[in-house]
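Morning!

This is the sequence you dropped in the shared folder:
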Amino acid sequence: MTPEGIPGTADNADAAVSFDPLRPLLTRVAYRMLGSVADAEDVVQDAFLRWLATDRSAVREPAAFLRRTVTRLCLDQIKSARRQRETYVGPWLPDPLVEEEEEDDVTLPLMLALERLSPLERAAFLLHDVFGVAFEEVAKTIDRDPAATRQLAARARTHVRAARPRYKLEKEKGLEIANAFFAASRSGDMGALGALLAADVGMWADGGGKRPAAAIPILGKALVMKVHRSLAVLLRKYGSTLVHAGMINGLPGFVTREADGEFQTTALEIEDGKITGIYVMRNPDKLRHMH
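The structure's back. Tokens below.
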């Protein structure tokens, strides 16, 4: 496929033939580095334009070359993204991805933990621990020696360890709890809702200043119960339609269409059968790809 805006020359077609099979992998790398679907797509498109301008006959391993290109573009992008997040309204959450074809263990809580790492730590951890790239290749990508790269990945593992689930949650069990949470929160059954929540549950809602959402994370069962008691009244009055139930960023959850006509995603972190984290995406800018 020849990207829009690029003349359909034979050379471009040849470049696309070698690039397009790698596009899904490159997009996954970029998304996990940036947490934004639109930014990831822009980075991958930029990588394609650079691929067009490259002497491809001299590239022995296109996958490694392009992965290196995408990672370096992401490292540049992270600098400006961090400045933007300093003025972001309310909690920031990564764009929601629903039912990815290729699952890995990069769940939403882990992506939030990655945000607290340095850009180089994030790159080293993702490339080696998630995508299985050898340290020698990761070192070339981030322009560090292999020993320093190993240290970066080790520090990253230490920082994100708490964000990785202790036990793998069976998908069917997770979706069962998500369905029960949806039913209880929409019916206003506070007893059923409270039974699903862990004592130290937290809720993060990302409205980006575009739609109503809690300005700070809400922590503790009592506070969350207050929020959902208010939500239950609003939902009974204005309504909310279930669009899809499934995995969102590796967590069980659901997609709804709210009274204002916009989508909303709710992803649930579950430990020992109880909901420990509720992640609600309401920012319409981060939901556009779902339309």
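Headline: The CA atoms of residues 4 and 45 lie 10 Å apart.

More detail when I'm at my desk.
O.
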